[in-house]
Design a protein that fits this description.
The complex is a heterodimer of chains A (694) and B (367). Helix content of chain A is 38%, strand content 19%. In chain A, helix 13 (343-352) crosses helix 17 (449-459). Helices cover 68% and strands 3% of the residues of chain B. Chain B has helices spanning 11-32, 44-65, 70-92, 112-130, 138-156, 161-178, 182-203, 206-216, 227-239, 250-253, 265-298, 302-326, 344-362, and strands at residues 94-96, 99-104, 109-111. In chain B, strand 1 (94-96) and strand 2 (99-104) form a beta hairpin. Classes of the chains: A alpha+beta (694), B mainly alpha (367). At the A-B interface, helix 1 and helix 2 of A face helix 3, helix 6, helix 9, helix 11 and helix 12 of B.
């Protein structure tokens, strides 16, 4: 065998081992190694595919099935004549689904999106990354809540480069009459995290909006409707493959307001014209027969369209920093001492409890002195500028503090006669009064006391929210001795009763509460639950369901009590402190209040005051009650606005009748003239009709 | 050379390999089926897979016809060629998923490491055969390790830690099979065990750290680095005993599985063919591998035995790593499932490797 004849090199390796047994052992070992590898794999497969199959199968289902809620069309809001006050206009929301943004492309998507919508790229990226780690990474994060069409086209054109970015059409609200109805309508706004967590069971989504204030909030469940549901199969990048099931959304129902837009506009004008130095003012006109609010105004006001869609930061800042707090509905959300308007409550209580007869007279010398119960050397002086001798009607009409101090706290208890009353003239006067059966001087007179008065105030609904269908209603506050003891550790003094009786001291009420209490005075004692919506309607404004008036409490008032109250309030307008409310075309009733507030004395040592006016019309057969409130004002000035509002209501509703005789003079008229006017007024009060109201 | 040697040809190896490749084609078909397709269509990756299998079968026969003993002569050249490929790919390779592993030949991609694995087996077989009488010397021991460590280091730079591991495992099994003294193994293993933590701190890259932490707790970042692991596990688990049926797996069809024709093709199998389908796959692999072990006992020289041992190990280890990744036994690493995953270079190399096994059988008589 030559080298060339066999081109292969001779085999030099030889067998690996001369021992065939060793080779076999190695082969077996390698075989075991291989079986071991596949054995391990098999065990794990049994674990995954046999024992944990159900869990992974469920997970695979979760992966591919996504349930998408489709938002319903929000119900509209109509005025009492069925005209829509709000429109749903389409708006575009640009959102991103964190789970659908491919890993590693967050920065690229964020950069591109940022150049389109102007939201900083790092914010978008943070939203994606945070969303991914949240409980549900499939929840869309809203980046632009109100995109214009141009932007929508731009984003849509780039959609291939923007995985996970969604454009959703939502409805935006546009409100009519927003200048006068903002506080009633309220606005809708994006759901907050906290609200979302609370409302998730109601199938709200993070991209949803919901009513934030006003009827938009109070009637949220009605207006919202029921979301539809689509169950779709999606692929790994969130793209919809097919629809598995769907259920249409049920549109929300509409609501009809009780508000009379024309009246509302005029009331707001009147309030704005009368504000003077007040930071804010409020007025309410309510139908005494149903509790329907015909007008409710709080000024300054704001434009609720400000909150629809993208918010104009500058305008928002202006609203937030306005000293008049335009976002607060002062008519229902703020509470103040009621001042003398509370005398109607004290009066009703005193008449009903038999503390005084209507014709019984009390003299006012302009001063009551009360000794401190513990230390007789301390005396408190209660002064009043209104002097004279008053029965119930004249006491109320002239707003005599001393008359109502007697009703609430009784006559002052003295151990010694005050020095100035010891003069011979004083003594003679004292004897004359006693001879005529007039309460005054040192005669003992038992008043209501704090407990009974507080009880009546509560019955009038002054210490709890009345349940108006608007957001933010305050509850008022009615004090009593037990409260004072537990709060201040002090007993209730006679002075506290005096303050309480004329709506000062600790008492605090909302304008709404005074309006509803006034309505109760003239409707037979029914305190209605106030409301601004009286019908649920369909999308076209057709009635679906009428809402029945609800009663908060029913006072048991005698016809005589009502007669006295109406006369007193009528006389207040005709010849008393509310004379500014008088107008020629209609007889109305009213009562002013000038309520001290704060701890700081202004104006020559006096406390600053709020101006109040409560009233009703027409005098003969009351249909509406009103309240007007001026922060920093005086009752007699507020009465002017009150008269104008009542006059406007009468004018708009065709209530003008017999022209009234011109008012002789504003205040302090002679007793004979007062009595004459009162007789003429009394003649206008039909006895029979009064009873029929009950 | 007489044609009579063909009587030693093992048809079971060919049949098992073709069966595996066919199984792979089915899975690739399902994984690449466009959504909403009606009826059966042959997708491009399926056609390529089948074409590669046919080409592979021919290459296998051609290789079988050539005597493996030529490797005595060309062994070192083969090994050197593999190293050159691995170096070249670092510079001119095309990258995918952040690593440079492929040569782009225009009509196909060639994964350098797949070729180098077989060439390294040849190199090691040649090395151990040449030094079969000096195996207890340290220089021989370390030299053999160096032969495997060099390509391991090169693929690690691509980066492809999984393939690096495969090179080391090939060396370990082949060295043991060649008969390197066990105490040297232990001493060497102990040294490595001490040095390895240092190497991990220095050499492991961020993406690898991510993969390892994703392996340990994929739920920490379920949509990020843990996504593939969780989705693969979910797919396999959802398959259950019988599977959802071919083309019926939602995880596969809705693309929750990524790289489902390569690294995660076993998850397609797990979801659609179920436990039974997986056992069928394992059965085919075991037939193939056990026939390989049989071939070792029939080989009549150490070169042939070592070549087959290396090839069997290559297939077994790659299958284990690939399936292990899919069922959360092994951290994510891009090792193809032999005969199943898309990848022409891998498939052709495997068929050539089986051709070498056949060659050892065919040329058993000549010495």
């Amino acid at each position: 065998m030559g080298l060339l004849s066999d081109r292969r090199r001779p085999y030099i390796g030889g067998p690996l081992s001369d021992d065939p047994g060793l080779l076999r052992a190695k082969v077996w070992l390698l075989g075991f190694f291989i079986l071991l590898l596949f054995g391990v794999l098999t065990i794990q497969l049994v674990r995954l595919q046999i024992f944990n199959h159900d869990r992974f199968d469920a997970q695979a289902l979760i992966n591919r099935i996504r349930t998408i809620d489709t938002p319903p069309v929000r119900g509209l809001i109509f005025d009492r004549d069925g005209l829509p006050l709000v429109e749903n206009i389409p708006a575009f929301v640009i959102a991103i689904v964190p789970a659908d943004v491919p890993q590693g492309s967050e920065a690229r998507v964020a950069d591109l999106l940022s150049t389109l919508i102007g939201v900083p790229a790092f914010e978008i990226e943070t939203a994606i990354l945070e969303g991914r780690r949240s409980i549900d990474p499939f929840l869309p994060v809203v980046l632009e809540g109100d995109a214009d069409q141009e932007l929508v086209f731009a984003v849509a054109a780039q959609s291939a480069a923007l995985p996970g970015v969604q454009i959703e059409t939502v409805a935006k609200r546009r409100y009519d009459h927003s200048d006068v109805l903002s506080h009633v309508l309220g606005y809708i706004g994006p759901i907050t995290r906290a609200e979302f967590e609370e409302l998730q069971s109601d199938r709200y989504r993070l991209a949803d909006t919901l009513g934030q204030t006003g009827v938009e909030s109070a009637y949220e469940p009605v207006l919202r409707g029921v979301p539809g549901r689509r169950q779709v199969e999606v692929d790994a990048s969130g793209r919809e493959i097919r629809e598995l099931a769907s259920e249409d959304a049920t549109p929300g129902q509409g609501i009809q307001l009780t508000i009379d837009i024309a009246l509302q506009e005029r009331v707001q004008e009147i309030l704005l014209d009368s504000m003077g130095g007040s930071l804010f003012a409020a007025a309410i006109v309510v139908d005494v027969r149903t509790g329907d609010i015909l007008s409710i105004v709080s000024v300054p006001t704001y434009d609720n369209n400000l909150f629809a869609g993208s918010i104009d930061e500058e305008a928002l800042e202006a609203v937030l920093t306005d000293v008049g707090r335009p976002l607060v509905n002062h008519a229902i959300a703020d509470q103040f001492p009621s001042g003398s308007t509370f005398k109607v409550v004290t009066g009703v209580a005193a008449l009903e409890e038999g503390v005084i007869r209507p014709d019984q007279r009390i003299v006012s010398t302009g001063l009551i002195e009360v000794q401190n119960e513990v230390d007789p050397r301390i005396t408190y002086q209660f002064r009043d500028t209104v002097r004279g001798t008053f029965n119930f009607v004249s006491g109320l009409a002239n707003s005599s503090n001393i008359y109502f101090w007697h009703l609430s706290g009784g006559s002052p208890f003295r151990r010694e006669v005050a020095p100035e009353l010891l003069t011979p003239e004083g003594q003679a006067e004292q004897e004359r009064l006693q001879a005529q059966g007039i309460v005054g001087g040192e005669q003992e007179f038992i008043g209501l006391g704090a407990e009974r008065l507080a009880s009546w105030a509560r019955d009038f609904g002054l210490d709890a929210p009345l349940g108006i269908d608007l957001t933010g209603e305050a509850g008022g506050f009615v004090p009593d001795p037990a409260w004072k003891l537990s709060t201040f550790g002090e007993g209730w003094g006679q002075g506290d009763s005096y303050n309480f009786g004329v709506g000062q001291g600790f008492l605090a009420v909302t304008p709404l509460q005074m309006a509803m209490a006034t309505a109760a005075l003239v409707n037979g004692g029914t305190v209605f639950q106030p409301r601004v919506v009286n019908e649920i309607v369909d999308m076209d404004g057709n009635t679906v369901r009428r809402l029945q008036p609800q009663i908060v409490s029913q006072l048991n008032l005698s016809a005589e009590t009502e007669r006295q109250l109406r006369l007193g309030m009528g006389m207040a307008v005709l010849g008393g402190t509310a004379g500014n409310a008088w107008f020629r075309e209609m007889q109305v009733g009213g009562k002013t209040g000038t309520a001290e507030f704060g701890d700081e004395r202004l104006f020559r040592g006096n406390f600053p005051t709020h101006g109040w006016f409560i009233g009703f019309a027409p005098f003969e057969q009351p249909e509406v009650a009103i309240v007007v409130f001026h922060e920093l004002g005086a009752g007699f000035l507020t009465a002017t606005a009150g008269g104008e509002i009542l006059r406007t209501w009468g004018e708009l509703n065709g209530k003008f009748g017999e022209v009234q005789p011109a008012l002789p003079q504003l205040a302090g008229i002679a007793e004979e003239l007062f009595d004459d006017l009162q007789r003429r007024l009394e003649a206008r009060l039909p006895q029979a009709q009064l009873q029929s109201v009950r | 050379m007489s044609e009579a040697r063909w009587r030693y040809f093992d048809p079971v190896l060919l049949v098992a390999a073709m069966a595996l490749t066919g199984y792979g084609a089915l899975l690739i078909y399902s994984a690449t089926l466009p959504r909403g397709t009606e009826g059966v269509i042959i997708t491009e990756p399926v056609a390529r897979h089948i074409a590669a299998a046919i080409a592979g079968a021919i290459l296998m026969l051609v290789t079988a016809r050539l005597s493996y003993r030529h490797l005595e002569t060309f062994g070192w050249m083969a090994y050197a060629f593999g190293i050159v490929l691995l170096i070249l790919v670092l510079f001119v390779g095309s990258s995918q998923f952040g690593s440079r592993r492929w040569f782009d030949l225009g009509f196909t991609l060639v994964q350098a490491s797949e070729v180098a694995k077989l060439l390294t087996i040849i190199g090691l077989a040649k090395y151990f055969t040449d030094r079969h009488d000096r195996l207890d010397e340290w220089p021989v021991f370390l030299g053999s390790f160096g032969l495997a460590a060099l390509p391991a280091l090169l693929v690690f730079l691509e980066p492809d830690a999984g393939s690096a591991l495969v090179f080391i495992l090939l060396w370990a099994v082949m060295a043991a099979f060649a008969g390197l003294p066990p105490r040297k193994f232990m001493l060497f293993g102990a040294t490595i065990a001490i040095l390895l933590p240092l190497g991990l701190i220095v050499g492991v890259q961020d993406y690898q750290r991510d993969r390892i932490s994703a392996f340990i707790d994929p739920n920490e970042d379920p949509l990020g680095s843990g996504f593939n692991v969780l989705q693969a596990e979910t797919s396999v688990g959802a398959g259950g005993l019988l599977g959802k049926g071919l083309t019926q797996g939602t995880q596969t069809q809705l693309d929750f599985l990524r790289t489902q024709t390569t690294d995660f093709i076993f998850s397609v199998l797990g979801e659609e063919m179920g436990f039974v389908g997986a056992m069928a796959l394992f059965g085919l692999f075991l037939i193939l591998l056990l026939r390989g072990l049989r071939a070792i006992t029939q080989a009549n020289d150490s070169l042939g035995q070592l070549l087959i041992a290396g090839i069997v190990t290559l297939i077994a280890v790659q299958a284990f790593i690939n399936v292990g990744v899919n069922i959360r036994l092994v951290p994510v690493t891009g090792i193809p499932l032999p005969f199943i995953s898309v990848g022409n270079s891998s498939l052709l190399v495997l068929f050539i490797a089986l051709g070498i096994v056949q060659s050892v059988l065919l040329y058993r008589d000549s010495s």
